[in-house]
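[job 0412] stage=fold_complex status=start
inputs:
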Amino acid sequence: MSPREQTEPSENELRAMAYVDGELSQAEAREFEVTLAGDPALAREVAELRALQLVSRQMAPPEPMDYEWERLKADPLQRTGVGLGFSLVLLGTIGFTLWGIWAIAFESELSLPAKLFSVATITGLVLIFLTVLRGRLRTLPYDPYTHIKR
Amino acid sequence: MILLSIDNIPGKEITSVIGLVRGNTVRAGHLGKDITAVFKNFVGGEINDYTKLMAEAREQALDRLREEAKAMGADAVVGLRFSTASISPGAAEIVVYGTAVKIG
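[job 0412] stage=fold_complex status=done
writing structure:
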């Protein structure tokens, strides 16, 4: 027997692997179980494959990804940089909005109706945003999916 | 409730097919997450906020499918499939569907 022949699984071994992995159809699985009942050697092989499947699951190396991400997030420089960046963006956005409203209302050469409509539009957008934000903040504690990481 | 992507349940017999069940959701992150994602696009790597967003959407869609299957009196759902689309930029839409069955 050549080494190649020794490594090639037989038809029954292939079916045993598919059976253990749950890849056989219901009819095929039932047919295989009948074969299995009359073939102790094959039954032993199925038991070994099941044990191997269990061991390979247990032996799977732990993924270091989550730990690494947590460590990176906890880094003071990372937290300060992101926090300061977002604070500046937020401050700038609020400042620009207020300055825009003030400039349209008091400094622009727009007619009175145009000033009113512009200020109403900006105020409306801000109002919608704040209302949506309030709603979200109120429902956030009841959202069961926020704890899911991946 | 057993959820399987294969069409049969090893070791169990499907006694009756109830029908199609599905669950879907569209979830969005917030602007802050989108801003960090933009910078992640520049430098590369996994966009964790979007990974989390997809995971949240996946679990919510699965829970909705589970609820529907339970309401229909199913013991299991087989042939489970996930599908995704893009309705809005920065939002995750997940549709999960399968066949609700009763097992013996």
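[job 0412] summary: The mean pLDDT of chain A is 86.
[job 0412] exit 0
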